[in-house]
Amino acid sequence: MVRKLGEAGHEVVGMDVVEAPNTVVGSIVDRACVRRCMRGADAVLHVATLHKPHVDTRSRQDFLATNITGTLTLLEEAVAAGVPRFVFTSSTSAFGRALVPPPGATAAWITEEVADVPRNVYGVTKGAAEDLCELVHRDHGLAVVILRTSRFFPERDDREDVRTAYADANAKVNELLYRRVDLADAVSAHQLALERALQIRFGRYIISATTPFSRGDLAELRVDAPAVVSRLYPNFEAVYAQRGWSMFPVVDRVYVNDRARTDLGWSPRIDFGSALDRLAAGEDWRSELARAVGAKGYAASAAVYSLR
After folding, report:
1. Does pTM top 0.70 for this prediction?
2. What is the CATH number of domain 2-295?
3. Where are the domains of the chain?
């Protein structure tokens, strides 16, 4: 976000618990530091979080402090400073157990209307932070856009069974079908949210690559995902065979980005079809931005950025 917003001519001031260029070192739970960073800002992009890979290494209290108290501090100080726009990076993990249907059920069709069923403290705190965003919007008129992002991290999968069974790129391209978004597309969604926040006033959106699946595919996806993919992309098996790749045997949920594409005017460029075309041409499936940023690991850090 810092790279792309800077290229667009914005003065970006970062806040993080670790040192970085053009960044104030501090925590979002430090109200005085947050207040200083808000001065002169005309928008806040709140990306700070402890996230899923930290569940096993950080306490629940740590999650509450950063993800809930920190969010409230940012919201309140934005209002106090007269900042008109606030974009919050949330997560599809907030849907929790709603993402995994019971045995014998079809794959879940996930839209913004699906009710959250918390799975862990990460999901609980992201959902609570969203509620705080809505509360402050209603009480104070702050324009807030919440983006529930699907997987966009370039790091290796946090599940050992996936790391063992699939090459990293194989797993990520598979996920573009139903639960992943390329980093550049995630960034463009945030840029559009900043641009349109004052018109939208309040909105919550799923940010994920456009799925090729329809509701009619949900039953078969739960028992034979490769058959569905082969029907939609007849060349996928040959492209995968050249790399020794394989498709996941089943798909348990499908993220739907219709609302984001309509309200934000968002047009994600990387999906399974485009990735397949790039692979067939011998190219890297990722965007240039994703390749440039690379993997950074799951540090115990958080950041918030304000535009000036």
Report:
1. yes
2. 3.40.50.720
3. 2-295
